[in-house]
Design brief:
11% strand; Beta Polymerase, domain 2; 434 residues; binds magnesium ion; cca-adding enzyme, domain 2; two-stranded antiparallel ribbon; binds adenosine-5'-triphosphate
């Protein structure tokens, strides 16, 4: 399927009628259907687009439903009481249905057409609010498989860019010239990695090379935007695969430079640790358990923290002091690349620091640890360390059992630990030295 876009405008799209594709209204969320129908009834064009269409065509459950329309944001707002206009880069309407949010975007033209409001700096699009036609909207999207439109008017699919063929072939193909499009928005490289991982698609010929050449541009992306991408890469059920693809494309370092440096030195522990953490994350998502960004970041940065801890301990710090200092250092460095909101970075540090506290269980300590809000995450983290071969089996088994048994047995477990106070009693009182 050729995808040359020398003169894309006024191209004739392929229309796939309802009987020839597998999307039925039953697969679309009630909220999305409501929005589609209300727009349609008010006389606007309304299409399901993006990941929703792509994933349904692949027989998967979409994470969310995006809608495209010729209604302008203010017009959308008039139709829906539960609507909020958001966005700096793109002005979008968010329509709220309880916890579900339907994102509605007005057709946009590529930045170099229409009213010319899009601002370009060094080839990067800064703002992108130029309204266009359905056709314009299709050509400014990133990948062909993301530019398929499901038309609520007749339930057909509209395909301007050859997305259907690419979907069937399992190919991720950039719309337009990949080099230019990556330069316009370097996040598209991370999106390419993410879709390749999630859909198990291959990148079109030449794309990997373009990404190698342009990967460095990701350094110019605002760290807050990269935080969102990190979550989409690692907390949507295909984290292990995302990690593999990011490493293959040499993009991991643009998200986690410190960790990447260790991996490149052949640090097998850090690599195994991350894989195990990500694999556990995927497993949790598969069975519907919640996942926490604090734990994810704690795991992704544990390699550099651990290395720094060893160094600081050699210089005479206690493990606790070293964990605190190393945690602060590694986080400060990481924030230059990817934002970690404080509500995650604080608990993340607590998870690390708790690693020094978990071995100290005497007296009331174990009970106090157990009551801390971060205990469960810290304990899971300890298990992870054990799973990748740190000599912590006894400690892990102890904590697992401590959580399971009744209060009598807990007391007995602590008693059996002995130690603690005794050592203090043996210490000579200061006054005796004088
Ligand atoms: P998912 O929701 O499963 O993560 P998605 O493809 O729906 O995948 P979104 O981030 O929800 O991804 O974006 C919706 C659609 O908007 C995409 O399918 C694509 O058509 C378009 N899009 C998103 N980001 C970009 C971008 N950086 N450049 C061009 N088009 C984009
Ligand atoms: Mg989406």
């Amino acid at each position: 399927m050729s995808n040359e876009q020398d003169s894309p405008i006024n191209a004739i799209p392929a229309i796939i009628p309802r009987p020839e594709h597998n999307i039925s209204r039953g697969d679309i969320s009630d909220a999305a259907l409501k929005v589609l129908y209300r727009l349609h009834k008010a006389g606007y064009a309304a299409y399901l687009v993006g990941g929703g269409v792509r994933d349904l065509l692949l027989g998967r459950h979409p994470k969310d439903f995006d809608i495209a329309t010729d209604a302008h944001p203010e017009e959308i707002k008039k139709l829906f009481r539960n609507c909020r206009l958001i966005g700096r880069r793109f002005r979008l309407a968010h329509i709220h249905f309880g916890r579900e949010i339907i994102e509605v975007a007005t057709f946009r033209a590529p930045h170099n057409q229409g009213g010319g409001e899009g601002v370009i700096s060094n080839g990067m699009i800064l703002r992108d609010n130029v309204y266009g036609t359905l056709e314009d909207d299709a050509w400014r999207r990133d990948f062909t498989v993301n530019a398929l439109y499901y038309n609520i008017d007749d339930f057909s699919i509209i395909d301007y860019t050859g997305g259907m063929a690419d979907l069937q072939a399992g190919v991720l193909r950039m719309i337009g010239d990949a080099h230019t499009r990556f330069q316009e928005d370097p996040v598209r490289m991370l999106r390419a990695a993410r879709f390749a991982a999630k859909l198990n698609f291959r990148l079109e010929a030449g794309m990997a090379k373009q990404i190698h050449e342009l990967g460095e541009k990701i350094s110019g992306v605002p760290p807050a935007r990269l935080f969102d991408e990190v979550l989409k890469l690692f907390q949507t059920g295909h984290a292990v695969q995302s990690f593999e693809v990011l490493k293959d494309l040499e993009l991991f370092g643009y998200l986690f430079a410190q960790t990447d440096a260790l991996l490149k030195q052949g640090d097998a522990y850090s690599e195994a640790f991350i894989r195990q953490a990500l694999s556990n994350t995927d497993e949790r998502i598969l069975v519907g358990k919640p996942v926490n960004p604090a734990f994810l970041f704690a795991a992704l940065l544990w390699g550099p923290v651990r290395q720094e801890v060893m160094l600081l301990q050699q210089q005479g710090m206690t493990q606790l002091q070293a964990l605190q200092a190393a945690g602060n250092e590694v986080v400060a460095e990481q924030l230059r690349q990817v934002t970690i909101p404080k509500r995650f970075s604080y608990p993340m540090r607590e998870i690390w620091v708790a690693q020094a506290r978990l071995p100290r269980r005497q007296g009331k300590r174990a009970y106090r640890l157990l009551e801390q809000p971060r205990f469960r995450a810290a304990y899971d983290f300890l298990l992870l360390r054990c799973e990748v071969g740190e000599p912590l089996k006894e400690l892990c088994t102890w904590w697992t059992r401590f959580q399971e048994v009744d209060s009598e047995e807990r007391a007995a477990m602590i008693k059996r630990l002995g130690g603690g106070k005794k050592r203090r009693r043996h210490r000579k009182p200061r006054s005796a030295e004088a």
